[in-house]
Every structure is written in structure tokens, then in C-alpha cells.
Design goal:
Length: 380
């Protein structure tokens, strides 16, 4: 009988310790979050915050969208840039007036530039890293997950140049082209620069180390190469009739030929490429083809109707139709369907695999149901 009070006192002590600990945690949360650091702040600190199901912004009809950071979103138009965190809170925004804006995002970084103008805005999830005014009109700008920014511009006395910036916005390298016009450039992990140029004899891929202006490899084609980039240490290039695959020395690893068809869209994933090609120049159904990083076909499927947009990331391909988004695996087998609102213009796949459907005033997280075989009739 004498042991009972001791057990009761022990229980009271445990409760008191828990209450003191909770009070201390709450005090820390309130100190960090200010006056809003109540229960919601405590819960967000424990769970890492709640994900937004919808992101709201000013009108961005015909604008560009990109995944950024930990389930965030970047929205750009000719009049402004809006960057949101995963909770739908606006991290920052900028207003400007561009004639023709172009957005590129990768990892925690993004760049928006005025094609034909001279303005380049380099940013991350927290804000603007650098606002750059180039000396000559901008041709293109790309950024990678390590934060290396490549800006291609016109250049007096040359046929273009490429300036490379590090993740702090400091220019670390510049290359001039005297024999062909510069179209685009990409840096892999900060050790190599790949430049796409076009001249009278056709297209060229030029590879060089960022420690030297001396090129190490070159690939020339009589055809038109419209885009190229790094996939890890490997390189891909898209032409009007094929996709080319190289190692990091520009030695060919494979080719996928789609001559006789029209290329409507493409997306480069990690270790694969997805194409949308059609027998017709405009309208109608398309064929979606997924390729390995050596040009082998992984799978193909016909779209249910005329697609509005396409995105690819990791092992998921998302096709936006009028009224729904359908996901496919890399074998191009349909996996899920989500209904979407009228006026949806773009589809974005975030770092965790969740998919956003974006329109003129908002973007929202798609809720997918398992794909049924008779779902295709919904779009026909």
C-alpha cells in the first residue's frame, strides 16, 4: 500500500516534465515565428509545414511555369515573376516589362530573361541572386541544379558568346564564337560547357572544359539541331528528324530516327527522353515515345486526343488534355487520371513527383484516380 503514492507522484512528475518541455518548445517556436507562433507554428515545425493544394498569382495567361525547390513553383510572364514555397506562400515577386520572356528552372535555381532584350534575372527559392544587364541582346539562358547559369548573347565582332555564372551570380567563364551563331549552352557540374551553334554548313555541338577556352570535342551535322543539353555526364541533342545521344566526349551512343513525322514536343528526364510526334503538322492525335539514354525505345502510346501540354520527370510522363491530366510510366502504360479545370494551360511535375495543373490565375495539385481502360473514351 505504501508504493501507490510513489507511483502517483512519479506520474505527476512525468506530466510536469512533458508540460515544461512543451512550453519550452512553444516558446522557441513563438520566438522564431513571431506572434503567429501558436499551435499552427508548433505543428508546422514538427511536420515541416503543410503543402498547399493551390497557388494563386496575377494573370499569367500564356506564361511559363517551373518546379523549384522543395515542392515550390515559379510563374513567369512578360510582366512579372512569382515564386512560391510548398505551402503556397509567395517567397518573392518582381514586376518588369519584357518583350519575350523565357523561364528555366532546375533544383533550387531559376532564370528568366528577355529574349532579344538585355535583362537576365537569376534567382533561387529565397530571392534574386543577381539581376544582370547584358551588353548585347540575349539569345537564351539556362540553369542547372548546381546553380550554374549559362547566358548566350549576341556579341560585337563575333557570332555570339556564352557567359557562365556560378551559384552566387559571379561570372566565371566566357566563350566567343567566330565561325557560327550561338543558339544555346549548358554546363553540367561546373566542369564542362556544351554549346550549340548553327552556321552555313549546318549545326555544331562544341564541348570544352570551364578551365580552358580550348575546345576538346566537336560534333557537326548538316541537319538542324534545335536543342542540346547534359543528362548527368551524357549528352542529348534534338534535331528535326532524330534524337542523338553522346557520352561526355561527344562520342555517339545511339540515335532515334523519326523522319517523316513532325516533332511537337520533347522532354529530357534523368536517363531518358520523351518525344511527342505526329503524322500531321497541326492538330489530331500524337504518338508519345520514351527513349533510353542510348536511343532505345522504352515504350510508345497514342494520345487519347490532341494534347495541350506534356511534362516528364523521374519515371513519370504527364499529358494534359482538355479536361484532364493522364500519367504514364516509361513503358507508356497509363497509370492515373485527374480531372482539371477549363482553361488549364500547363502541367508541371515537382521534385517529389506531385503534379500541378496551371492556368491563367492559379495552379493546383492534381488528385489522381487509378486509370481504367475505358477512360480513353472520355477524351475521344
Amino acid at each position: 500500500m505504501k508504493d501507490a503514492p510513489k507511483k502517483k507522484i512519479g506520474l505527476i512528475r512525468v506530466i510536469l516534465i512533458v508540460l515544461v518541455a512543451a512550453t519550452a518548445i512553444l516558446a522557441v517556436i513563438m520566438a522564431v515565428n513571431g506572434r503567429d507562433g501558436g499551435f499552427r507554428g508548433l505543428w508546422d515545425a514538427i511536420t515541416g509545414g503543410s503543402d498547399a493544394t493551390e497557388f494563386y498569382y496575377e494573370s499569367s495567361s500564356g506564361g511559363a511555369f517551373g518546379a523549384i525547390g522543395n515542392r515550390g513553383l515559379a510563374v513567369a510572364s512578360n510582366s512579372g515573376l512569382y515564386v512560391f514555397d510548398k505551402e503556397g506562400k509567395q517567397s518573392f515577386s518582381m514586376l518588369f516589362s519584357f518583350e519575350s520572356s523565357s523561364l528555366d528552372t532546375a533544383g533550387n535555381y531559376g532564370v528568366i530573361c528577355d529574349i532579344g532584350g538585355k535583362s537576365v534575372i537569376f534567382f533561387n527559392t529565397s530571392g534574386v541572386i543577381s539581376q544582370i544587364e547584358m551588353d548585347y541582346p540575349v539569345i537564351s539562358a539556362t540553369v542547372n541544379e548546381e546553380g550554374y547559369l549559362c547566358v548566350c548573347t549576341e556579341e560585337s565582332g563575333y557570332l555570339g558568346s556564352v557567359t557562365v555564372y556560378n551559384s552566387e551570380g559571379t561570372d566565371i567563364y566566357k566563350w566567343y564564337s567566330g565561325s557560327a551563331r550561338v543558339l544555346s549552352a549548358d554546363a553540367n557540374d561546373g566542369s564542362q560547357l556544351l554549346v550549340l551553334t548553327i552556321g552555313q554548313g549546318g549545326s555544331n555541338l562544341v564541348l570544352m572544359p570551364l578551365s580552358s577556352e580550348q575546345e576538346t570535342s566537336r560534333y557537326s551535322s548538316s541537319g538542324l539541331i534545335i536543342d542540346a543539353g547534359f543528362d548527368g555526364n551524357n549528352i542529348w541533342a534534338v534535331t528535326t528528324e532524330s534524337v542523338l545521344f553522346f557520352n561526355n566526349r561527344l562520342e555517339e551512343r545511339g540515335t532515334y530516327d523519326f523522319s517523316g513525322k513532325y516533332l511537337e514536343a520533347y522532354a529530357a528526364g534523368s536517363g531518358y527522353m520523351v518525344l511527342r510526334i505526329s503524322d500531321y503538322q497541326m492538330g489530331g492525335q500524337s504518338q508519345i515515345v520514351s527513349l533510353s539514354d542510348s536511343g532505345q525505345e522504352l515504350g510508345s502510346a497514342m494520345t487519347e486526343a490532341e494534347p495541350v501540354d506534356m511534362a516528364a520527370s523521374d519515371e513519370t510522363v504527364a499529358i494534359l488534355y482538355s479536361g484532364s491530366v493522364v500519367t504514364y510510366d516509361l513503358r507508356m502504360s497509363p497509370e492515373g487520371r485527374a480531372e482539371c479545370a477549363s482553361g488549364t494551360e500547363r502541367v508541371v511535375i515537382r521534385s517529389d513527383g506531385t503534379i500541378l495543373a496551371a492556368g491563367a490565375f492559379s495552379a493546383y495539385v492534381c488528385e489522381f484516380a487509378e486509370y481504367a481502360q475505358d477512360d480513353a473514351s472520355m477524351e475521344s
